[in-house]
Amino acid sequence: MIEIFTDGASSGNPGPGGYGTILRSGQHYKELSEGFRKTTNNRMELMAVIKGLEALKNPGQQVTVYSDSKYVIDAIEKRWLDGWLKKGFAGKKNKDLWLRYLQVAKLHQVRFVWVKGHAGHPENERCDRLAVAAGQQRDLKIDSVFEMESSKGLS
Q1: Distance from chain centroid for Cα 80
Q2: Residue 95 structural domain
Q3: Which helix (H) or strand (E) segment is 151 a member of?
Q4: Contact 111, 65 (CB under 8 A)
């Protein structure tokens, strides 16, 4: 069983932001984080999940993802994502990341658990610190899809 803990942050929404992800399986533990110069909180929440799943080396894993993002969890658990996909994401944001999520999620058996943010959950608190710190770095990455779409008024 692999556990993935995730969080995303954005200052300004849109603004600089980042994600934090913890992967844990038995004695194995790994932290991931990256910052972007212009993004949104929802993009970073979803990116944290994607990056955690992409970091898994072997397909077919049983994975539990812990997130404080109702956006991410409800989209999957309440099957909103299925409807968005059928409608070609008409009027919906983050299509690029949702498609990326679908590709990596189908490789594993993934279940989601919602955790209340900023409520003392140790791994969630650590992911929050990673996400905030990543968004405050000097050399932030460019979220090119988001910046292109926002310049066209699509985001």
Answers
A1: 16
A2: 2-151
A3: helix 144-151
A4: yes
Closest residue by Cα to residue 122 from 43, 18, 24: 24
Q: From CA 7, how far away is CA 46, in angstroms rounded?
A: 8
Q: Which residue has the tokens 């996400």?
A: 131
- What's the CA gap between 139 and 112, in Å, rounded? 32
Our count of domains for the chain comes to: 1
pLDDT tens digit sequence for 108-149? 999 999 999 888 899 999 999 999 999 999 999 999 999 998
DSSP 106: T
| 155 pLDDT above the threshold of 60 | no
Q: Give the predicted TM-score (pTM) of the model.
A: 0.95
Q: Which of left, alpha, beta for 9 (phi over 0: left; psi -120 to 50: alpha)?
A: beta
Phi, psi angles (nearest 5°) of residue 132: -65, -45
Active site residues per annotation: 7-8, 45, 68, 118, 128
CATH number of the domain enclosing 129: 3.30.420.10
